[in-house]
Amino acid sequence: MISTNRSIFCGSDLNWTQSEPFPTNWVEKNNRFLGIIANVASNFRSHSTSVESQVKENSFENIFIQGGFNVKPLVIETIEENQDLLRTDDRKGKGYKVEINDGSNVNIDESSSEGLSGSRILKSTHEREVSEVEKEAWKLLREAVVNYCGNPVGTVAAIDPADKQPLNYDQVFIRDFVPSALAFLLKGERDIVKNFLLHTLQLQSWEKTVDCYSPGQGLMPASFKVRNVPLDGRDGESEDVLDPDFGESAIGRVAPVDSGLWWIILVRAYGKITGDYSLQERVDVQTGMRLILNLCLSDGFDMFPTLLVTDGSCMIDRRMGIHGHPLEIQALFYSALRCSREMLTVDDSTKNLVAAINNRLSALSFHIREYYWVDMKKINEIYRYKTEEYATDAINKFNIYPDQIPHWLVDWIPETGGYFIGNLQPAHMDFRFFTLGNLWTIISSLGTNKQNEGILNLIDDKWSDLVAQMPLKICFPALEHEEWRIVTGGDPKNTPWSYHNGGSWPTLIWQFTLACIKMGRPELARKAVALAENKLSVDQWPEYYDTRYGRFIGKQARLHQTWTIAGYLTSKMLLDHPELASTLFWNEDYELLENCVCGLGKSGRRKCSRLVARSQIAA
Ligand code: GLC
């Protein structure tokens, strides 16, 4: 039973770290038995069967709202056997202080660093000597750790010593924590990640409203803060509370669509790196995953398998003209679906959801491969497009006017290689190169092998534009002049070649490293890491760099930005241990390629558009 008392969350931490019901080596040997337990547990929630019905139906969960804040916890009352979930303990109400951890007590439990498959986890960072820069980075990363009721639950976005106005940079961002989590996991320190995943799961169920309207229940916050508040009527006593931001305080009030996707990706990474699959098998984790998936897979007015979102719903979290179907969200969506497909316990209650995931994966990869990909050949095709075609077998399906091909692209597109464009809408292709989306199409195999190779070839070829003096450009090129004014609304933070508008973000290096290792080109990543390594420590680990070639520290960049630090450390460890990197990416799944459920046969009046498509490449 999960109690409604918020302070009880504090007490739960102890149970989480001790909640593995079986000795670790026992678990590995007895996977079958655990499977049975998981099935017993999932039978318990089997009332909710179909994808559609789960959105509204909560027959296995009694949800009730607790008063107090604008953002309130919805408490899920779940009766479970064999799963030691959240319990009260005698520390309740005693008042624990928020601390910025000095790192000395993070994950000190030696046994946990063994992991369930100890050999896969690094005992020390690596065999080579750890450089001074890495030592400094580890020290700063540990200083960024946030404690909740005495246990580490995440890392703050930045601790800039000179920052008088931290805004929300003193919060734990879901997306920012991912590289921190990987650095800790690769070092064999798992507790902070487990705590983070379970605490954010609690936040997911909070009821949240903006002007009396509530977004879907599965929404994960963009960030959260640990506050220490005085206890009513108890002099001098206080307690820690978690205060999430679902977008209701965020600049622009954007819903963080990527948070839930990152959360799912991290749950999988936790299992893969530690070998502890009991976390993903937990009923509450399975339920959390399903809530996120229900939100993403629910029916709407969409004509495409891509997710329709507002501007600023991901890493680029303010207006940059990426509303619609931005590549970053699609690539993370695809990755999260692939993770879920591996992790969902399959039984009667989830079989429809699993089928929906498979169908979406298949349709999404077709759509992105076919319509988002551009290279020399495709641009030339678009250049000669006819418009106003009315037919199901139109060549120019989205009615793209050739004039939309921007001037910069005509000379920029290389003879070999290519990339996925930033967005696709009716009569609109956003030809900008967005790095995060392209890297995740490689990592998740959303792109074909040939396309993925093509992206790395393009980055290599356009090194001076995309990597330049500091890896890597968040997007290329910048919006300038009138276009900047219209598209960003004249945003003074997103001026040309600054911040989201063509700025350089060192945190992207870890994802670049992962993509390079996957494609067998680690030397490219090494080159980028070496470039960053020379400057990051001297420049005090800035959030981003400005100017066309990334030469200046960003105008409003925070220093000691945690995901810059963690991204660097994660890249170093991935390069040292490519075998661990390989647990974090996916290869082509041929089963998905064969899957088409549109019901339109090869013969007959209407043809399946996938069968008539000309350029779908399986290789
Ligand atoms: C900025 C970035 C966002 C990041 C946040 C915290 O808002 O755009 O991606 O999560 O800072 O670092």
Automatic annotation (TrEMBL):
- Record-level Gene Ontology MF annotations: beta-fructofuranosidase activity; endo-alpha-N-acetylgalactosaminidase activity
> Which keywords fit this entry according to its UniProt record?
Carbohydrate metabolism, Glycosidase, Hydrolase
Q: Name one Pfam family in it.
A: Glyco_hydro_100
Enzyme nomenclature, EC number: 3.2.1.26
List the InterPro entries: 6-hairpin_glycosidase_sf, 6hp_glycosidase-like_sf, Glyco_hydro_100
Q: Look at the named UniProt entry and state the broad enzyme category this protein falls under.
A: hydrolase
Superkingdom of origin organism: Eukaryota
Catalytic activity, reaction form: Hydrolysis of terminal non-reducing beta-D-fructofuranoside residues in beta-D-fructofuranosides
Q: Does the keyword Transmembrane apply?
A: no
Family statement: Belongs to the glycosyl hydrolase 100 family.
What is its biological role?
A: Invertase that cleaves sucrose into glucose and fructose.
Output this protein's name. Alkaline/neutral invertase
Organism listed in the record: Abeliophyllum distichum
